[in-house]
Amino acid sequence: MPNLTMLLVLSVIQALTWIEYPGSAGSTVDVVDLTFADGFEASAGLNVSTNGGIVQCAIGSGNAGPCATAYVFGTTLTLTGTPDGNHVVGTWGGDCSGTTAIDCSLTMSVDRSISANFGNGPIALNISTNGSGSGTYQCRIDASGSFQTCAATYPYTTSVEIRATPSATAPTRSHITAWSGDCAGIGTGTSCAVTMLTPLTTAITFDLDFVTVSLTIVGTGTVSDSGGTFTCSTGTCMHSYPWGVAVTFPKPGGNFVAWAGACTGGNTCSLSATAMQNNQSLTATFTP
Fold this sequence. Notes:
It is a single chain. This protein is mainly beta. Helix content is 0%, strand content 53%. The protein contains no helices and 25 strands. The strands form eight sheets. Strands 6-3-10-8 form a four-stranded mixed sheet, with no helix packed on it.
């Protein structure tokens, strides 16, 4: 090779020829004569596929950002895989196969194809309750196992049974009115079975149980309960009370004569907590 005083590099070549030209003061100038390769591209393509997360690219020691579809030949890239909330770090495929770290480094000397295969992580289960009543819920992952406090997440593909239990005692005895969300369609059933493939959300509606007191007025007079929630002065009136909660009707004034039905006599009518576990019928008679 001649002693070079100037070298002009024009592009990537298919053929290279050294040509010597006279220079000043007896020197020479050597120039590279280049023949370009047919179809030559000054970049290499990058195809990235992923499931359950994102892959970002950084050039050299630069900051990571969205990956481009092509890079200048020779560019050094670092690809970083980040799983979403439902997945965990998995494996690299394609030109990053064999890489076990979360990052994959490569040189864009040819077109590259990379896949980031994230594993399925814990799946969230969100359960809430609403309604006028109260109740609890538990979960089990083995059909023959015991019910326990529901976890916030379960492994991917886990089968979970949710069991709802309404309050059974006064004054909050309740019943299941409905399930919603991913358990919609269960109706008033006590359990819902789900498979943890995607995040699931359900709400259980518990409503209070009530009993009805039917009060008939005979003659002319007015009857009210001691709580002031129910007053009847003519015909037959009906009112709902929470299941198992005692109710008292003080002796009415005026020309009251007597009670009949659930109460008898002419004094205060007391419907016990036991009596108020069922509907009651009562008559108050007044003299004309």
